[in-house]
């Protein structure tokens, strides 16, 4: 299976509560235990590395309609194949044994009549890139679900930026367009959810670096998410500017709501009856102060004019007498 088949669909892979935990205890022993045990014996596999994961993955593929409804079964199969390859690599299985494990899982899905020709060993370079993108989605989705995030969740989400940034040279040199297109899909998704991410983790990094060549060359073939994308330049808007607009909108809304509440209280509640005389009294006091100031100003002005006239008369009389 080519890398393109993964890169074009990885943004749809299940994450968090919908993912498959091969090392967990979600299996149905009575349903799949015998099948997995037989496959394990036939291939001479270590039961600690195969039996439980086998039962978990068999239970998962038969229960996705209930636990994580995704109509595209081919997509689920690609995700399961990635998960199997990830589990094998995380357990540091040797190359020879890795192929034996893959063969055993192929037999399992053949018996289940699911995922025909999908379960296979992933080439190391393709797997590393798929693994990075999947982990970016998985870690980012943990903080945008509305569940209170831990400090480690926030740190893992910020680490997504480091993973994303390490591929800058590859994308600038156009060495893997399909993979870089998947990175651009992630960038669009990252910005579309940045508001929720900021709410959960105020220290979240709000800007992803731009890969100029990637942004110019990959066209408009990007993934569609639940947040609408108005045009291709949307992801170039600095997210800090978005927060400025958002904060201004919040402040305006608070002022408007406060004014409306005060108006209603003043007009239609006992609060208005109580506050109206106080306001009227303060208004009268203010008017009296203003009147006194005006009178003082007029008196002062009158004295100044009178003094100027007396001075003028004295000068005039002295000229006449001379």
Task: Please specify the SSE layout and strand pairing.
Elements: H1 3-7, H2 29-42, H3 47-67, H4 73-90, H5 95-112, H6 124-142, H7 151-165, H8 168-172, H9 177-192, H10 194-200, H11 212-217, H12 239-268, H13 270-321
The overall pLDDT average reads 78
Q: What is the general shape?
A: elongated
Largest sheet: number of strands, sense, barrel closure: none
Number of strands: 0
Proportion of residues in helical segments? over 70%
Compute the number of helices.
Answer: 13
Briefly note the structural class of the backbone. mainly alpha
- The number of domains is 2
Classify the beta-strand content into a percent band: under 5%
| End-to-end separation | 122 Å
Task: Spell out the helices and strands N to C.
Answer: HHHHHHHHHHHHH
Please give a structural write-up.
- The chain is mostly helical and 322 residues long.
- It has two domains: 3-236, no CATH class; 246-321, no CATH class.
- The chain is 70% helix and 0% strand.
- Helix 2 (29-42) crosses helix 5.
- The longest helix has 52 residues, at 270-321.
- The radius of gyration is 37 Å and the shape is elongated.
- The protein starts with a helix and ends with a helix.
Care to give the gist of this entry?
The protein has 13 helices and no strands. It is mostly helical and 322 residues long.
Describe this protein with a few key phrases.
single chain, 322 residues, mainly alpha
